[in-house]
Amino acid sequence: MLRGGDGQAVDAIHARPLGMPTRGIVLHPDIMGLRPLFDDLCYRLATHGFAVCAPEPLARLDNREQLDAPARMKHVAELHDRVQIGDLERAADYLVVEDDVADVAVMGFCAGGMYALKAAAGGRFDKAVDFYGMIRVPDGWRGPSLAEPLDTAADACATLAIFGTEDPFTPAADVDALRAAWAGRTDCEIVIYEAAEHGFVHDPERPAHRGDDAADAWSRVLAFLG
Questions:
Q1: Dist. CA 1–CA 64, nearest whole Å
Q2: CB-based contacts of 89: which residues, under 8 Å, 6+ apart?
Q3: Consecutive 10-residue runs of the chain (226 residues): their mean pLDDT?
Q4: Phi and psi dihedrals of 97, rounded to 5?
Q5: Could you give the domains of the chain?
Q6: For residues 155 and 166, is the Cβ–Cβ distance under 8 A?
Q7: Cα separation of 205 and 119, whole Å?
């Protein structure tokens, strides 16, 4: 259990290697939140030497376990960036205290990638990994307390962003806009996978999963994080 950005208790996964971790990773899940898939992802990252903390993205929604993906998406407009990013930053503080790491990266998938991109500009994280996170908030998700990730992208820490060409959530125009925001920077990189759809890396059970591309993406991520 984690104390979130607004002081409320937030369910979270915590994983660490057997020895001293090399750095911390705060992992923002996709819209379906914490589940065995992310237990496994956190464990696998820990085997590479990382201490990991993954908070539940809809932690303040009482009936989240009973909601399917479309129902969860309807609640995105109710989120507050200050609280959501605050949860990620508190998770980073937790890793510093509990696992004695000095450097903490933020990583996210899908909607979590969108928040990783936003959190990358907040100054708390030294690196960020965005797996097909929305660069502009989708029309159906817009809310009064959700800023556009693109608006602060120029201020991001070192970031690796991974997209597929067939992903409707990250159209080519948005990817080009992100590339323009990072023009001249050598610490921010966009990697594009041809013919890949949304969610092609993190969940092998999805029809969109592409094993070879996923393996290549993970190799790039591990090299980027050092």
A1: 17
A2: 5, 119, 122, 124
A3: 80 95 97 94 98 91 73 80 93 97 97 97 98 94 89 97 98 98 97 98 96 98 96
A4: -75, -50
A5: 2-225 (3.40.50.1820)
A6: no
A7: 28
Looking up tokens 């923002």 gives 28
Residues 105, 157: Cα–Cα separation, whole Å = 9
- Answer yes or no: are the C-beta atoms of 71 and 91 closer than 8 Å: no
Record the tokens describing residue 163, joined without a space: 């997209």
Q: Which residues of 42-64 are buried (b: 16+ CB within 10 A; e: fewer)?
A: beebbeebbbbbbbbbbbbbeeb
For tokens 């590339």, what's the residue? 179
How far is it, in rounded angstroms, from Cα 21 to Cα 133? 27
